[in-house]
Amino acid sequence: MPAHETQMSGGFAPGRGLPRALLFALVCSTVLAGEIRHAAAFEIFGIKLWGSSKDEDADIVDPLRYSVTINAPDADKDLVKTLENASALKNDEDHPVSGSLGLMAKARADREQLVAALYADARYEGVVTITIDGKSIDELPPDAEFKGPQPVPVVVTVAPGAKFTLGNIRLKGDAAGLAAADFGLIAGGDAGSGAVLKAEALIVRALKEEGRPLAKVTDREIVAEHASSTLDVTLTVAAGPVAGYGDTTVEGTEKVDRDFTEYMTGLKRGQQYSPQEIDDARDRLLGLEVFNSVTIKEGDSLDASGNIPIGVQVSERKPRFFGVGGTFSNTEGLGLEGYWGHRNLFGQAEKLRIDGSISGIGSNSLSALNYNAGVMFEKPGVLGPTSKFFTGIKTVFEHPDAYDHFSVKGDVGVSYDLDKQQRVSAEFDLDYSRITDAFGKHTYLIASVPLQYVYDNRDNKLNPTRGFRFLAYAEPSYDILNGATFLKLKGEGYTYQSLDTASRFVLAERATLGSIVGTGLQNVPADRRFYSGGGGSVRGYSYQGIGPKDIDGQPIGGLSFFETSVEMRIGVTDTIGIVPFVDAGTVSTKSFPDFSDVKVGAGVGLRYITPFGPLRIDAAVPLNRDPGDPHFGIYAGIGQAF
């Protein structure tokens, strides 16, 4: 091989061979109660908000403290940040290691991690040197002891070298007919190790999508041309035969029925293999909420019938769960809620949930607090793996400004996932209610058939940064006691656009439109009319405070409404964000919204990102307030506003 070339077969390691593959994962968990461990440390729900705890280091044998300096004079700011994030020495600097041997082991592992970080940035000539107490780790004897004062100085010096680009690219074997550019392998393009490995995975995935479960890379030849700072890549791929699914075996089930678990994968024997169906099966099993983890592996070879065996490994969650939560705003008061549930009532992921809430604390008198209680039951897989049967009963006793309301409502229905993004549902509801509003006291018995379609391709349900969600809702209703018939229609659209690659700036928008047709306002129960205003609506205004009012200034609701919001979600750090926003809404007594009377609120919010969703505090003011509207609103809760 010429002196100016380095050849890598099966990996990325100029000159010295392949470093061990490195994989880092952060596993977050939440518990129901936090604790204060130390005066300088505070944790809530298992998440450290600030400070550190000395208890974390109490079990370390022969603790040795060190300090780290990373010198990379030729690296840009982004690469320096990448190196610091990759360095376990730097990230763990506040915690001692176990003696001199522990420090040397950590330093040697750190060098591999830093070299891997250089390769990921296409720096194949990079050199990482680490010294401990002034001596190179390559020169230190295995039994070296650092007896001097602590912390022991550790210096990491990185010479990143030139950044490589892709040179000649060849796909061989069964991938010979594929265009390398379709997978991101372009001459002059990104030569980082991650980019090349990602391209390999995409090539294999493309062949697997043809129904070939045994597709794999059989040879990888990487040549680094140091003179031109280019990386030549040759990949040989074997596609393997087209195959169907063989037997599906399930391991790890204890209280969940094993046959039911196999059924819910939806992988039918003999049906042509698809990697997307494997992904969907994993997501569907996780969606049952009875498993902590789900791993689906394809066999290494085909069975006697030419099919690929499928192995499913699961670990179960505790079946019972409970929790508490709360919201607060200066216009709506304090709200508290609690729930208890069982995830696996009869062994096939049947869910039973009992919940209750109370709201209006501090805003309403004790006799006018709002109460909700309900029982819900779900059974998945009734009409196929993507379906779910549900039924429940709910009691409501509430006193918003617009009306006083008591009701008992029962429902039964089914939902069906058309695919990973689309869901349809239909149900039958029967609702008995007694309502006092501006039109007097009324008793209703409403039979209705709610129909719903949802399309949702958001990247994250708790904190989306890109994607779209659309909901279409229709509910034909008949009042058995009073003879009124009406149709309630509603459409909602949400969009999320990441304005930068790191998703530090996310533009979020929503629009909602609703209409009731078929009867007059007074014939529609007050709780089924449209309202606007408040924390989940137009911030800055009181709850249900937008729209037509009676002679006492109390809202009466409407037959139509329109709302829209725009937020710019700005990530200041990985956990802290600020959110300037504008909301607008209108409510009309006609069946089509009156856009001549739109109320607008604006403000700014603070977000603290947690594994169970953002903690949210919003402050807003009404921009065109009427007499009786609040001068400002403050809202707190869990989750984004939309």
TrEMBL record:
Protein localization: Membrane
The keyword Ligase appears for this protein: no
Main localization (coarse): membrane
Domain of life: Bacteria
InterPro entries: Bac_surfAg_D15, D15-like
Any one GO CC term of the record: outer membrane
Domain Bacterial surface antigen (D15): 344-642
Coiled-coil annotated residue ranges, if any: none
Pfam families attached to this UniProt entry: Omp85
Keywords, sorted A to Z: Membrane, Transmembrane, Transmembrane beta strand
PANTHER family: BACTERIAL SURFACE ANTIGEN (D15) DOMAIN-CONTAINING PROTEIN (PTHR12815:SF42), SORTING AND ASSEMBLY MACHINERY SAMM50 PROTEIN FAMILY MEMBER (PTHR12815)
Identification of the protein by name: Surface antigen (D15)
Lineage: Bacteria, Pseudomonadati, Pseudomonadota, Alphaproteobacteria, Hyphomicrobiales
